[in-house]
Structure formats: structure tokens, C-alpha cells
Design goal:
35% of the residues lie in helices and 20% in strands. The protein has 402 residues and is α/β, with parallel strands linked by helices.
């Protein structure tokens, strides 16, 4: 079997998605997600100009060799654009391999280690009462784990909270919007939120929170320690991940579990964090972290140190990535939890999915490969629209982490 053609499908059913389709001389094709929120066309160009010409003629079953061809064989390694392209290729090849063998992807990864995947929802509100009300709605929808983000008094906008009450979508049309941040207001607010949420819903509901890289190590340590009475499932991205040593300070002061890495893209972003047991969950998604081939290695490495997975799964990734993540989550031994934000209905006009939500869990059918398909004709009805994530400044105007 040989690769005969490949193409990039760009569409915007509600938001932008980049999909790689690889064809073979066996009449089998595979799909890979290549979406990088706010930088989609950079990945599309990388694939079209540099990767696809080199794919033609290769045997798609040689996933290990092809992965290293596009990673080790390239002088300028790593980076979000490169690794998203590598991930898309890898996912599409595993999709082909599963279809060729007429078996679901999870069977190629060791078979099932579990029957269903625990997921967490997002609950938000502009103020405390709205937040509690939204947590209640998620509980009514049978979620057993909920990420809680709430507005902060004195801040007009805050990560994770939509201003109009609809589902949160940070990428906005045009150039980046600017938002204002105040760490002290945030640090004073968050413990109060979780105190009230625990009072309302008790301690059986799993609660999570995303700091979005906005604390220094000592600020993160203060926050994690203050949240200990509320027994979070995890505190996500408490510091910017570039300085891995910063997690040592946090670990010295708190036992709140830490999840980090949705913006990481190789195992080399995790080496100190894993070997020193500075985190509890890895967040790097298949679509940005090198696909199945690389994440199998990362997850195995993490398992030795009692670290579990908790893959990024927001709606800025396509159903191809979510389905592949479910297969992966079913197979590995150290699965922890999966982020789940349902896509808008318009997305399902373009992507035909094979998974379903039931009582706090995701399940997937036994379709061969990844199991998601794309309607290319329908995709053409939704052309690309420039959209960017915001940028963040402190109250005095200093650029800060968004």
C-alpha cells in the first residue's frame, strides 16, 4: 500500500478547522486534525508546501518511520506549527492502518483498558451566583466532573467566561482583542468561589480549575494551598510552563494536584516535570503533541512516575482529534480524565462522528480506524474566517500571559 495523494481541507463551521486527508492506492483514506487555534493557515501551508510532497509514495503503515522522517529528519524541530502538522500526518496514518485492518484504533494501541471515558464539562458565570447556577446545569446533565471558571469583580473580561452567556469561544474575528488582568483580585476571588460551590454541591463532585498560566510560582503556591480544603481534581496551568523549575516551589507548599501542558508539543517539555513528579496530569493533546506515535511514548513515560493523562479537548480541536483521543484514552493504563466541550451542531454538518456522551462518560463505536468522516462538499459551504485569540495586559499596560 502506498500514499498516492493528500490534501488540506480548510473550513469554518462556527469556527476554523484544518483537516488533512491522505489517500492510498488501496482506496483507503485517513483523516488527521491539523487545527492550531489562531494560526490555522500556518499549519496548512506547512503541510501543503513541505510535508505532502514528501509523503507521496510512502507506505502509510510505517507510522514510526514516517513520524521520525518529519521530526528527526527536519533540522528545525519542535514548535506548535511543525508539531501540529506532524500530528495530523500521524493521526491520518493510524486512521488508514485501522481501516486497512478493519478494526477500531484502540485495538491497535493494546485494546481496551476500560469501557468508557470519564469527562469533565465547563461551567462558567460572570459572578458567583451565575457560576453556581451553571455548575448545577452541568450536574443535571449528568456530568461527574466540572471545570469551574467565574468572573472576578473589577475585571471586565476573564478567561473562560463568555460575556453574553453563550458557550465560551475565545477566538474572535479579526486581529487579537486586548484584555486586562489583575492577579491580586483573582487570587482573592477564586477560593471564595470554590467554598460556595462545595457548599452547594458537596464533595463527591469532581471540581477543576484553569489558571491559564497567569501566576508566578509563589502566587501559584499560594493559590494551590488556599484551595486545598476544596479538594480539587486538579489545578490547571498554574504557571507558564516554560520554566519547569517553577513547579518545584508550588509542590513544596501544596498537595493540590497539578495538570499542565496543553500548549506543550513534545516529551522534552515534560522531562523535569515527570521525572521529579512535579505534576499529576499531562494535558498535551494528540493534535499538537505529535499524534498517536509520540503520545504513546509520553504516556508510557509518565505512567512510570504515577502521572496520568487529561488531554485538552476544547472545541478549538475538531471531532477527528476528539475521537482519536477517546480511542487513546480507552487503551492506555494511566488515563485520568478527558476534557469535553460539545461542538456546535453546525460542526456535525461537516464532520460525521462516532462517539456519544452518556451519564458523565464518552463512548465510541467500533468503526474501523478513528471512525470520523468529513463531508468535503459541505465543508466548502463554510470558508475560512480570520480569527485570533486575545492578548492580555496588566492594569498598568504591561503585556502578560493570556
Amino acid at each position: 500500500m502506498r500514499i498516492t495523494a493528500a490534501k488540506v481541507i480548510v473550513c469554518c463551521p462556527g469556527r476554523n478547522f484544518i483537516t488533512l486527508k491522505i489517500d492510498t492506492d488501496a482506496g483507503i483514506y485517513g483523516l488527521g486534525d491539523a487545527t492550531l487555534n489562531g494560526r490555522e493557515l500556518a499549519v496548512a501551508t506547512y503541510l501543503e508546501q513541505y510535508c505532502i510532497p514528501a509523503l507521496i509514495g510512502k507506505d502509510p503503515r510505517n507510522t514510526e518511520d514516517i513520524w521520525h522522517y518529519f521530526y528527526r529528519g527536519v533540522y528545525w524541530k519542535r514548535g506548535a506549527v511543525t508539531m501540529t502538522a506532524v500530528s495530523a500526518i500521524d493521526l491520518a496514518l493510524w486512521d488508514i492502518k485501522g481501516k486497512a485492518l478493519n478494526t477500531p484504533l484502540y485495538n491497535l494501541l493494546g485494546g481496551k483498558s476500560r469501557e468508557r471515558i470519564l469527562v469533565y464539562a465547563h461551567a462558567t458565570g460572570k459572578n458567583l451566583q451565575q457560576t453556581i447556577d451553571d455548575v448545577g446545569r452541568k450536574v443535571e446533565q449528568s456530568f461527574q466532573a466540572v471545570r469551574v471558571q467565574s468572573g472576578v469583580a473589577g475585571l471586565a473580561k476573564i478567561y473562560g467566561v463568555a460575556k453574553d452567556g453563550r458557550s465560551y469561544e475565545p477566538a474572535q474575528k479579526g486581529m487579537p482583542a486586548e484584555e486586562v488582568w489583575d492577579t491580586s483580585k483573582y487570587l482573592n476571588s477564586v477560593p471564595q468561589v470554590f467554598e460556595k460551590v462545595r457548599e452547594a454541591f458537596g464533595h463527591d463532585l469532581h471540581l477543576l480549575h484553569d489558571v491559564h498560566h497567569r501566576c508566578t510560582p509563589i502566587e501559584a503556591a499560594r493559590l494551590a494551598k488556599s484551595l486545598e480544603p476544596y479538594h480539587l481534581f486538579w489545578l490547571e496551568d498554574p504557571v507558564s510552563g516554560e520554566l519547569q523549575e517553577g513547579l518545584r516551589l508550588l509542590r513544596q507548599h501544596s498537595t493540590t494536584p497539578i495538570a499542565i501542558g496543553e500548549v506543550f508539543n513534545t516529551v522534552y517539555d515534560y522531562t523535569a516535570l515527570i521525572t521529579e513528579q512535579l505534576i499529576d496530569y499531562i494535558r498535551m493533546p494528540l493534535v499538537h503533541g505529535g499524534g498517536i506515535t509520540h503520545l504513546l511514548k509520553v504516556a508510557a513515560f509518565a505512567s512510570i512516575y504515577h502521572i496520568q493523562t487529561g488531554f485538552h479537548g476544547a472545541t478549538d480541536l475538531s471531532p477527528v482529534n476528539l475521537a482519536a483521543s477517546i480511542h487513546f484514552d480507552l487503551a492506555i493504563s494511566n488515563f485520568g480524565i478527558q476534557e469535553y466541550m460539545p461542538h456546535q451542531e453546525v460542526v456535525h454538518e461537516v464532520f460525521k462522528i462516532n462517539y456519544r456522551f452518556d451519564s458523565g462518560f464518552l463512548q465510541i463505536n467500533e468503526a474501523p480506524g478513528i471512525g470520523v468522516d468529513i463531508d468535503e462538499e459541505k465543508a466548502r459551504d463554510y470558508p475560512y474566517q480570520t480569527a485570533c485569540l486575545p492578548v492580555n495586559r496588566k492594569a498598568d499596560g504591561t503585556m502578560y500571559y493570556w
